[in-house]
Design brief:
mainly alpha; elongated; Arc Repressor Mutant, subunit A; 66% helix; 2 strands; single chain
């Protein structure tokens, strides 16, 4: 569907004057839009009674108008009033379904991202100072690993960071398993000494 600007002359005039036809409405207006303008107040009350909110009803009536203005006007309508009310109900149901999906999605996210303690949602996130300290500690670890001797650093990265076994690390580096074990052990000792508080 093409998007039209609000000042597009192809769009009919918006509803004006509490449900009465606007003097600016063209003589060859769409009969469905004419019926909408005539019944707008009733449609808003109809929607408000079902939606439970006048603001929601006004939003739905505006959305209905936009759908009517953008529709194909070549189709003959046998019962314009019936179609208007059916479209209004469908819009209300679509909005209710969307709100239900949104609430379910938010609830699922809340279950994953938080815990409930004493009936209050509490985020499962570490306190900000702990998160900052962890980030700083990680930066220190990365820098310390970068300062290791080349063979020691490579053995440590392959085994501890990439998850290869001692045998796989030995094959990747062209060393014996015992040599890899010594490199990894020496790397752990060096990192522990460097990062000790």
């Amino acid at each position: 569907m093409a998007v039209r600007k609000l000042d597009d002359p192809a769009l009919p005039s918006p509803p004006v004057g509490a449900g009465r036809l606007s003097a600016a409405a063209p003589a060859d207006s769409d009969p469905l839009l004419v019926e909408y303008l005539r019944r707008r107040d009733n449609i808003v009350r109809f929607l408000a009674a079902r939606a439970g909110s006048m603001a929601a009803a006004e939003d739905l009536a505006q959305e209905l108008y936009l759908r009517l203005a953008a529709r194909d006007r070549t189709t003959e309508i046998g019962n314009p009033a019936g179609l208007l009310y059916r479209m209004a109900i469908n819009l209300m149901l679509d909005r209710a379904r969307g709100e239900t999906r949104s609430a379910a999605r938010d609830g699922a996210w809340r279950q994953i991202a938080s815990s409930e303690i004493g009936g209050i949602d509490v985020a499962d996130l570490p306190p900000a100072d702990e998160a900052a300290a962890s980030a700083q500690r990680l930066r220190q670890l990365v820098a310390a690993v970068g300062e290791l001797a080349p063979q020691m650093g490579r053995a440590f990265r392959l085994h501890k960071l990439e998850g290869l076994s001692h045998g796989e690390t030995a094959r990747a580096m062209g060393l014996s398993v015992k040599a890899v074990e010594k490199h990894v052990s020496a790397a752990l000792k060096a990192l522990t000494a460097k990062l000790a508080p």
